[in-house]
Structures are given as C-alpha cells and as structure tokens.
Design a protein that fits this description.
This protein is about 70% helix and about 0% strand. The chain is mainly alpha-helical.
C-alpha cells in the first residue's frame, strides 16, 4: 500500500470516529442529560463528571492534519474533489462547533444543579440536539464522499 493510500485510509478512519462518537453521544447521552435540565445534568457535574472533551480535543486536530495531508498527497489525482468537499464541510462544521455548539453546550451543562426543571433551558437543550443532528448529518454525508474517493483512480483529475 502506498503512503498516499495509507494516509487517506487513516483520514477516513479518523473522520468516521467523529461520526461514531457523535452518534454514540446522541443515542446515549444528550436525550437523557437534556431531558429535565438542570436536574438531569448531574453526569456533567461533580467529582465524577464525564469528560467528553478528553476525546474531542485531540480528535479534531488529528483529523484536520490527516485530511490536509491526504489533500496534499492526492492533489494531482482524481480524489482531490472528494477530499476538498469533505475538508470544506469539516472546516465549516468546526467553525459552527466553536461559534455555537461548544459555548451553548458549556452554558447548558454548567447550569447549577436544582431539583426542578427549567423549561427555557430544556428548550435550548432540545434546539442544541436538533442542530447537532443536522451537523452530524452533514459530517456523515461528507464522510461518504471521502470514502467514495478511495474508489477513484490515482490518475490526473478529470
């Protein structure tokens, strides 16, 4: 296997890890955590709070580096368009993540515990989930484009 192909495969794996982790969080965490905030936010607070940032902080730079390396190594191939579409989508999703998703998530999950339900906080949390699903759908679609690029010949782009 050529190094160009190996880096491309690693970029695909890293990108798909993001999809897997995002899907896992949506299926196992967010609907429960955001069901009755702030009462339902306990998993993010206290001494034994979960720390998803331990995964998300390193995976994004790694994925970006792998996608950029894949683009550089495949610039003169038929795969370039697939990589550019995925990279463009990913960069837009990262920008949206840092402008809206992370600040809003931090605002919601750091709300002090109360044994009540805050309807406004619940509404914000449900909007966050809905928009996050849209973001995840774009990432999933662009992953299909990236993976499809592996089937293209290494010759010059058409």
């Amino acid at each position: 296997m050529k190094s160009r192909d190996l880096i491309y495969v690693l970029a695909c794996i890293s990108y798909c890890l993001i999809i897997g982790a995002g899907t896992y969080e949506h299926l196992s965490t967010w609907r429960i955590a955001f069901s009755e905030p702030p009462r339902s936010l306990m998993m993010f607070q206290g001494e034994y709070a979960i720390q998803p940032v331990s995964f998300w902080r390193p995976i994004h730079p790694l994925t970006l580096i792998l996608l950029l390396a894949t683009l550089a190594l495949n610039w003169r191939t038929g795969r370039r368009k697939n990589i550019l579409i995925t990279l463009g989508t990913y960069v837009l999703m990262i920008i949206a993540t840092f402008i809206y998703f992370v600040p809003e998530l931090m605002s919601i999950t750091t709300t002090p515990f109360a044994d009540t339900v805050d309807a406004e906080l619940q509404k914000r949390a449900h909007l966050w989930i809905s928009l996050s699903m849209v973001r995840l759908s774009f990432i999933f679609a662009s992953a299909c484009v990236l993976i499809h690029g592996l089937t293209k010949p290494e010759g010059n782009p058409a």
